[in-house]
Amino acid sequence: MRFPWQRKADPPPPGPEGMVLRPLPREDQWLNRFHLDARRRVRAGAQGGHLTRRRGQSLRFREFTPYLAGDDIRAVDWRQSARFGPDHDLLVRRFEAEEPLTLIVTLDARPSMWLPQPLPKMQIALWLTEALARLTCKQGDTFVLHQLATGKVYPVKTRRAADTLVERCRLAPGETAPVNLGQLERTMPPAAVWLVVSDFYSEAPQCHAALADLWRRAARKHVWRTLIDVNAWPMERALLGQGARHILGPGQRLEQPFFQVDNGVLAQVEQRIQTAKHAVQQPLQLKPQDARTWFWPEQSELDADAALAFFRAQFQQDPLLKRLFMR
Amino acid sequence: MILLASILAPLLLGLAVLHMRKPRYEVRRISAARFFDDLAPTDSALTQWQWRNPLKSPPFLLQAACLILIGAAVFSENAVWYTVEEPGQRRLWVWVDTSSSMATRINDETMLDRVAAAWRDQNHRLEQQDYTWRFRLTAFDSTQRDFGEDLDAAGLSRGLAELGARPLATDVTLPLRALEQTETDGGLLLIYSDQPAPAWLAQLPRQRIVWHDVSTPVANHGFSAVQAVDNPFQESGALVQVSARQVGPAVNVRLDMRKRDGSWQDNQPITFKDGRFTTLFRPPTPGAYDLEIVPNDAYPADNYLVFQVPETLGFSVDWRHPNRDWLALLGWRHQAEGAVFSVVSPAQADSLPPDQPRLIVGPGFTSTPSRIGHFREGSPLLAQANLDVAETLGVAPVTTPAPLLPILADVDGRPWLARGAHPPAVYIAGFPHGQGDQARLTTLLWFNAVQNLLGSRATAPLFQTTDATTPSVETQTPPFRLDFHPAEGNSFKANQSYRRDLLDAPEAAEATATRAVAWWSWLIAAALLIFFAERVLFLIGGPAWR
Asked: What transmembrane ranges does the database entry give (chain B) (predicted)?
C-alpha cells in the first residue's frame, strides 16, 4: 500500500532533475587495454579509409593522377611516366592526406532514453560517450558531443573536459522535440566519424527526415557514419512481467493505460518496436557493420556494479568500436 | 441487532465481491509505453476475478474498516468509556420536589418560592467559581420528570419558574434510584425538597448528593384518615370514622360536616389528644358529603374532604338458618343478593354458591361437659375466650364439615369452632346459649365468628387519591379524587439538610470531574474519518486508490 504523499520518495519522471547519472569511474585500466588491443589490429583494405590519419608527414601512397597545372613538379614519378610513353601526361604521385580524427557522438536525450529505471539507456549512453571521449583525447584527437534535440555541440579536447561530460547531459524538452542538426553540420569536418546513440523510439517524421538528410550530406564529405541502437526492451519485458498492469511512460497518449499483459501482448509490442526502429534506420541505408545494437540484460533489477559490468562487456566486445581505434 | 447484522453483513460481502472482480493494476514505467497505445484495453482486462484482490486493494480495506466501525458503533450502543472532562466545566443535576406539600405557604411564600430563592443564592455563589457549570433539571414527586439536560444558569432559572406543586406524594428514593440507574456519575446532585434528608445519603459511596431542605417548622392540622366501618351490633351499618392529626402548637379548630345537597349538616369542635382525634358519624342518607376543618392553615390540602356514601354502605346477610331469633335480635338486614355472608345450618351449607362466605351454625350445645382435645392458639376466633368455660359446655356429636379446619374441638374431634379460607367460612357449634360465663363465652365466640367474616370482606374506599397516572383533583362529580396524602402534612419538623450548600461538597472543589462518553460516538467519528480519507485518496491518490 502506497499513500499519495509517499510518491515524493519514488523516482520522479526521468530527467536530470530526478535522476543522477553516474559518471564513468576514473579507473580506466580496462579502457587502456581495450585501446592497446584495438591498436594491434591493422585495417584490412585501407582503400578509402579515413579513420587513422595523423598529423605530420605521411608515406602512404594513394594513387597516380595525371599532372595538372600547378602540381608540385617534385611529385612527378618519372619512371612511371616513362613507362606509359610520351602519349600520356606525366603521372603525379598522390599520398593520403593526414588529418586529425574528429569523433562526433550525437546523443539522443529524449525522455525515453531515461528509462528503464534499473538501468537507464542514458546512463549507458553517457558511459559510452565518456569512454570514447577519453580514448579520443588520449590519442590527441578531437571529440565532439552533439545533443540531438537541443543541437548544442560541445568539443572536447582534454581528458579533464572528457570527465565533465556528465554535466552536458540534459533532458530533451519532449519526446517529439524537433532535431537540431544545423550546428552539427557546420562543425562536422570532412572525413570525421559520426556516431549516433539512440533508442530510435521517436515517431516524429520530420525528425527522421532531418536526420536522413544530414546523413546523406555527410556521406558526400566522406564522413564515416555509424550508430548504436540502445535496446532496453529485454529489461522492460522482464520488468513488465505478466498480469494486470498500469503502464506509464513518455510519448503515451492513452488516458487509461490499463492492460492485461501476456505473451501475446509482449510479442505485439516487440513487433511495433522493431517497426519503429526500422522506420528510422531504413532511410539511412546503413551497412550492417556500421550499426550495432546493444541489448539490455533480461532482468528486472540490476545493481550499480552489474550495470557497469554490463557496459564494459558491451564496449569491449563491440567490433565497431574497435574499428574506430585501429591503426 | 439481528436486523442490523443482517444488513451490514451483506454490505460487507457485496463490497468484497465488488473488489474481487476489480483487478489490481501494478504500475510499470517503461520507455516503450507508447507502443501499447494501439492495444486497446479489452473487456477481459477490466474484470479479473481473484480472491486476493480485496486484500490487495487499499480502498477495500478502508471501506470495510468504515463498515465494520459503523457496525461496531451500532452494537456497542450502550458501551461507554470514561474520560476526563475539561477543567473548568462541571455538571450539576438539580432535583426539585414538586409534591403536594411544596404548596405549603409560610409567610406568603410557598416552598417552591423558597427553592427559587435558594437557587438564586446558590447560583450567585457558583458564579464566583472558575468553573463553567452545565445543569440538568428534574422534578420529582411520586414520579420523575426531566426539564432539560444541558442548561445554563438562565435556563435552569426559567425551568424552576415553570415548576408547580402537583397533588402527589413524595418518593424520596427517586434521586437515588436515578443515580444508580445512570451509567455516568452525572456530576453532583442538588436536591431541593421540604422533606428532611434521608439517612441513606450518608451511606452513599461517592457522596455526591447535596440535599437542601427548604422547609421551616410550621403548625398544621388536618385529616389523617377517613373510612367506612361496619358495626355488627348496629343494624343500620353505615358509619364513617374520621381521624385527624395535629403537628405543632395547638389551635382551636372545628369539624364541619354537611351533605352536598344541603339536606344535612353538623359540626363539632376538635380536641386533639396527643395530636390525634377520631370520631364516628353516621351519614343519614347515601350521597356526597363535604368535611372541612376550619380554620385553614399553612398546608390546605388535608383540611378538606369530600366522599360519596354509596347506597350499599353497611351490610346485609343471607339468613337461611331456621332459627331466626338472633336475626331479629341484632336487627340485621336480610337480603340474599349482595349479602356479606350466609347463615346456614350444616345441612344447608352444600346448597350455597361455592364462593359465598358462610357462617355455619351447628345443632347447639349439650349439658354433658366435654374436654378440649385441640385448639389453635392465636386464632382470632378464640380472642379473649375462656377455654375453661368451654369444657362445661357439651358439643353435639357432629363431625367438622369439610373442608373446614377445627379451631377448638374436644378429645373426640367434635368441634366448637372451625374455620375455612376459600370461601371464608366459620363453623360454630350453636347460637349464644346459657347463663353467666357460658353465655359470655358463647356470645363472644359468636361475635368473633361474625367479625371474622366481616373482616374478610373488601370494603370499597369512600374516595380515591391522586396518583402519577391521574395527577388531578376531582371534587365535583363522583368518583371523587382527592389530594389526600397524609405523609405530606407533617410540616412541624426540624429542618434537616445534607450539606445544604453545594460548595460544602468536597467534590465541587475538585479540579477534574469525569463524564461518560459513549463508545459509539468515537467509532462513528473514526468511520467518518476513514470515509473522508478514502474519498480524498480516491480523488487525488491515483489508480491504486480507485
From this structure: 519-540
